[in-house]
Amino acid sequence: MARVLIVGAGLTGSLCASLLRRELQDKVRIEVWEKSRGSGESEPEPQGLHRGSGESEPEPQGLRMSTSRPPDPSSHSADLGAQYITATSAYRKSHHRLYAELLSAGVLLPFDSSRIEGLKHKDGSAEVFFERHVTGLFRRGASWEVQSRAGDSEMFDAVVLTIPVPQILQLEGDLRESETHTHTHTHTLLCLSLI
User: Fold this and answer.
1) For the region Disordered, what residue ranges are annotated (predicted)?
2) pTM for this predicted structure
3) Is residue 189 part of a domain?
4) Which residues on adjacent β-strands are paired with residue 146?
5) Which residues, in sequence order, are CB contacts of 155 under 8 Å at separation 6+?
């Protein structure tokens, strides 16, 4: 069975895992590696090196959205960034099938200003590993060797990077020089939030 790694457990990584599962069904084993303690998080790097916990249900977040959690889990948290999906009529029509599927599964809910619900976790049949920070991608024949900060490595048939371009540029290994050169001219817009 083919193995696919998705790097990043934000909205893009979660959607990618869902679409791959829908199209390829049981023909592929999907893993998601996220460097943070949870999906869509923005946090300081942990003091020690930890392997992923193997939790299997990513929260749909991303698009530089994040949940900031302090070290004390009984304390507060803050959600930053867009907390909803906005679609124009044309976009909604062209993506009707996807929206219908997400609505029927309860992943998306119509906005009701009188009631705000928390995120609902749905099993996307992907193995999700938190605190697994990718540091290198190396081509090995038809496969990719993916190295983590903890020093271990695993082989995958395909790797999908859903992390920001500045993080991609920090990866060691066999990313083509032309791809790296192209992306060095990509700019990330800064958004500040007062919490």
Assistant:
1) 34-79
2) 0.61
3) no
4) 137, 154
5) 3, 140, 143, 144, 145, 146
